[in-house]
């Protein structure tokens, strides 16, 4: 049997990767943002229905009792505990793990840059992301479009006020390959329209863009606010470059009771999808209840933005080794 032991990225690319990582650290050092490390293993896990965690068993010495732990999908929960402990502005360059993800833009193990800025508004955080994209990765300045605006421009519907039937009709007209009898939620329809119709248009624009003010149902761990038209929206943004989602930022939710309910609602959806219920991070909830500062935070896929900065077409081409799933 022939074994391909060679790295998936060439050595020159790995040298460039190291230079970009040094550039990130310089960027945050200039802004007095503290680099931190948090555990990869946790006895809790992300509850989001669209994401699955790797699990492993911890067995203490001289014991047969297994304790299930999970590899983190993001360092978010532990970093927020540091914020509640008065860490101030922090960032982390972390290896993260997501089960089932594999493809040109996906890997089950990848590098995430995540940072939190107490006292910064979401707009100010977008300004900082814009600076990072240009200064560290030498990419173009980022434009800004609202979620409602981009759907109105490309699909001629106001997704914040139209009824579900209009969204489904738009989906089946724009993507006729989907069967009309599929049991899809409103948000699933919007996500399909985004990925199948809007993202290719963004790729054709070839310009970085922030999309902000998502539907309130997609708040995840962000606050909900009113937009200029009085609609409830999630105070969050996503960064797209060449039609590829690169980063996800929030005006961070601070209410532990609201977050607890969102976790419970997530687990209900997981059960409805025949997925296992995930243990809730009570340490995070306790930290939030003790008091987390007003802040904005963002997670950025380092491998993806590096791939674009180096004009690569596959995420594995910027990683030293890919996980062989053959």
Task: Categorize the overall geometry.
Answer: globular
Structure classification? alpha+beta
CATH topology: BirA Bifunctional Protein, domain 2
The CATH homologous superfamily is called: Bira Bifunctional Protein, Domain 2
How is this structure best described in words?
With 326 residues, the chain is of the alpha+beta class. The chain has one domain (11-142, 208-318): BirA Bifunctional Protein, domain 2. 36% of the residues lie in helices and 21% in strands. It contains 9 helices and 12 strands. Strands 1, 5, 6, 7, 8, 9, 10, 11 and 12 form a 9-stranded mixed β-sheet that branches. β3 (55-58) and β4 form a beta hairpin.
Can you summarize this structure?
With 326 residues, the chain is α+β, with helices and mostly antiparallel strands.
List keywords for this structure.
326 residues, BirA Bifunctional Protein, domain 2, 12 strands, alpha+beta, single chain, 3-stranded antiparallel β-sheet
List the helices and strands and how they pair.
Blueprint: H1 11-30, E1 34-35, E2 41-42, E3 55-58, E4 67-71, H2 76-84, E5 90-97, E6 109-118, H3 122-135, E7 143-146, H4 147-155, H5 164-174, H6 186-205, E8 209-215, E9 224-226, E10 232-241, E11 244-251, H7 256-272, H8 282-291, E12 295-301, H9 302-309
Parallel strand pairs: 1-5, 7-8
Antiparallel strand pairs: 2-4, 3-4, 5-6, 6-12, 8-10, 9-10, 10-11, 11-12
């Amino acid at each position: 049997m022939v074994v391909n032991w060679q790295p998936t990225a060439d050595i020159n690319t790995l040298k460039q990767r190291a230079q970009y990582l040094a550039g990130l650290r310089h960027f945050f050092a200039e802004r007095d943002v503290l680099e931190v490390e948090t555990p990869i293993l946790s006895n809790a896990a992300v509850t989001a229905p669209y994401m699955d965690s790797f699990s492993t068993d911890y067995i203490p010495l001289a014991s047969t009792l297994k304790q299930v732990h999970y590899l983190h999908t993001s360092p978010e929960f532990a970093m927020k505990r540091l914020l509640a402990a008065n860490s101030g502005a922090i960032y982390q360059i972390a290896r993260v793990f997501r089960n089932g993800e594999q493809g040109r833009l996906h890997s089950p193990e990848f590098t995430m840059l995540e940072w939190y800025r107490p006292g910064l508004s979401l707009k100010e955080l977008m300004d900082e992301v814009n600076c990072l994209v240009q200064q560290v990765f030498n990419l173009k300045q980022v434009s800004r479009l609202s979620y409602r605006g981009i759907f109105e421009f490309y699909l001629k519907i106001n997704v914040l006020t139209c009824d579900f039937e209009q969204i489904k009709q738009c989906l089946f007209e724009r993507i006729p390959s989907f069967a009309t009898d599929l049991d899809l939620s409103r948000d699933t329809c919007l996500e399909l329209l985004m990925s199948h119709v809007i993202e290719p248009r963004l790729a054709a624009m070839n310009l970085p863009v922030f999309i902000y003010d998502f539907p309130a149902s997609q708040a995840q761990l962000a606050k909900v606010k009113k937009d200029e038209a009085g609609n409830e929206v999630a105070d969050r943004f996503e960064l797209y470059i060449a039609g590829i989602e690169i980063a996800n930022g929030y005006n961070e939710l601070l209410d532990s009771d609201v977050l607890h309910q969102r976790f419970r609602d997530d687990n209900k959806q997981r059960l409805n999808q025949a997925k296992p219920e995930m243990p809730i991070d009570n340490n995070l909830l306790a930290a939030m209840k003790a008091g987390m500062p007003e802040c904005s935070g963002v997670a950025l896929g380092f491998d993806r933005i590096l791939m674009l900065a180096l004009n690569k077409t596959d995420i594995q081409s910027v990683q030293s080794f890919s996980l062989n799933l053959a």
